[in-house]
Records
---
Amino acid sequence: MAAKRRPGRNHLFVPGPTNIPDRVQRAMLVPSEDHRSVEFPELTKPLFEDTKKVFGSTDGTIFLFPASGTGIWESALTNTLARGDKVLASRFGQFSHLWIDMAKRLGLDVVVQEEAWGTGADPAKIEQALRDDKNHDIKAVMVVHNETATGVTSDIGAVRKAIDAAGHPALLFVDGVSSIGSLPFNATEWKVDCAIAGSQKGLMLPAGLGVICVSPKAIKAAEGSAGSNDRLARVYFDWEDHKKQNHLGYFPYTPSLPLLYGLREALACLFEEGLENVYHRHHVLGEATRQAVAAWGLKTCAKEPKWNSDTVTAIVVPEGVDAAKIIKHAFVRYNLALGAGLSEVAGKVFRIGHVGDLNELSLLGAIAGAEMSMIDNGINVTPGSGVAAASSYLRENPLSKS
Ligand SMILES: Cc1ncc(COP(=O)(O)O)c(C=O)c1O
């Protein structure tokens, strides 16, 4: 049976994949071409340099893989670490959990710091664990910058300070899948050794392009492990193969051409708006969403304002209500895609993604739809209250700084 036609645009408010700007979509409509031609580097060489800017990196190396964010997690771990190496990781949501699970399955010895869902990485605890590690057995600290499952942003600058205060040489790996390109990210200042991004969130592209920004220290760690018998196996994600080709503008295997053209256009969009404006816009849209949640009389999953994420808000539904019903109804009745609660918070929260290519009125559409779906499902929310609160805030707070 053919799917039911729903007139008008689907309102996509999951926290990735995000809306793709029309000009980026058009830029991806390209015929196939020879990725080993003499002209191909004209596309690729500037991409490596320009991509670095969204990571806030001046000294890093960018690698582009036909992969999603999960592949890039693997790339960070397998290029730098050896079997049995100890790593320190904070767990406070589904994505930090999955990355830890991967590290364990790869044969790493993961020291897990459990934090309540709705909070994030605790720099003081990280510092203590590193101070206690007198022999420097811990080789890397893994942190998810923006936990998409709970709408929590951790303070990576503070984590860096904690590592330095402990005088510990561990590498710092940061998952920026739902932050890079939307939230301020300073890979060089924070000395992030592997910063991990996927194409389908702040970069406003389809999924399928995995991006990593690697510090000189991590490049050295990868080179150092090359001859070791214990090094983790890596083939597809081996940086060495990419290094040999990338500086010439080529890849060791077939790249996804449409995604590379899309990346060029998406970066142009971000730079035309200005990264500072992009970050400010996400902050304003995040705050407007939170104003709506407060007006509904509901709470966010983020337990304190310091954890608030400006790319995704997880909204806790009242006891006895199944959040999945609100999500399903919003989709079927109002053509609005909201994010589901994952794992521990399944059925307890729904998420509004406010990441990527959006503005005031698109966000207000999502807030209106969420409100209507909640009311239809018997939640005692005053009609129009969220929209009124968010629109008042948005009228007073322009999206652009300049
Ligand atoms: C914070 C975070 N890390 C990692 C991932 C996994 O990325 P992917 O689904 O692109 O493999 C996601 C996906 O949503 C994410 O939000």
---
Amino acid sequence: MAKRDYYETLGVTRGASPEEIKKGYRAKAKELHPDRNTEDPQAEAKFKEVNEAYEVLKDEQKKAAYDRFGHAAFDGGMGGGGRPGNAGFRPNGDFASAFSDVFDDLFGDIMGARGAQGRARAAARGNDLRYNLRISLEEAYAGLQKTIQVPTAVTCGVCKGSGAEGGSEPQTCPTCSGIGKVRAQQGFFTVERTCPTCNGLGQTIKNPCKNCHGAGRVEKEKTLSVNIPAGVETGTRIRLAGEGEAGMRGGPTGDLYIFVEVREHSIFVRDGADLHCRVPVSMVIAALGGDIEVPTIDGGRARVKIPEGSQTGRQMRLRSKGMPVLRSKDVGDMFIELVVETPVNLTARQKELLRELDKLSEQKNNPQSAGFFSTVKSFWDSMKG
Ligand SMILES: [Zn+2]
Ligand SMILES: [Zn+2]
């Protein structure tokens, strides 16, 4: 189900001032309040919608995101989460179309103002594109050069983007007089819509270019080499200016946004720039101390000294063995957490040795157990009393 435009929901135009948005919200909230609309089963949903729209539009940051990306800015797809395994491009996906809607509207506003001065809007900016890129943690560590294929639209080579054949001139659209928008009354509001005759271009073409059917651009798969810097994380967005779709009839090109998703790693868990890693150590090494080797994210190994008498949960820090910080010289740390492993599948001889060890054990060898049992004993005593 398509979500209503937030501005429309509040009955204000795009470009409305904060005061106008507030005013619109008050009026709509009053009008649609469920207490005043007890017969309308949709009242609550409508009221909620108004509140949701206002939550976004009153906040400068959220408003900017909404203006740029539409509802897609808040639908969770932004973080690269979305559908799992969905690396790559969504040609007809929700995002691309959300972009296109928003940009059509924005552009319409800008050009509409110009249209008032009698100048037709001849060209529309191309859509921004989104490309989802899944990479490994190692790739995020080192950064990488990646070649990607993006289905997009490029300027038509035959008409050089004009959309007209053989140098014939585009003409002002008779439906909208070149403004690209038509107005319609909807309830109390005048709603502007994209002109159906010229699709908002403000011009029609008598002899459209046969190659692009008058659009001035054609679909094409573009191959791009993208530089992904070291330190990116899930949710990092990389903008490639001018690598989106070509505009209609020679309009400006949109941008391409690469949304990064870093896959989970089998050994390391990332926490910002730090890496965490659980390392099992044998009971004997934990008791006697010793050196172990742990893997590092660069593919190497680091020696770690396990102190005598280490317990499960003991943390050790390896400085600067974490992830690089994006566009900075900082590097995080790596933390290892020891997990002492109880031996299993013991032979008779091994068991015998352990029993012998146990016989020789004193309270001071197991201070935690000794301490715990004395606490338990006083607990039971107090219950009796
Ligand atoms: Zn053409
Ligand atoms: Zn028109």
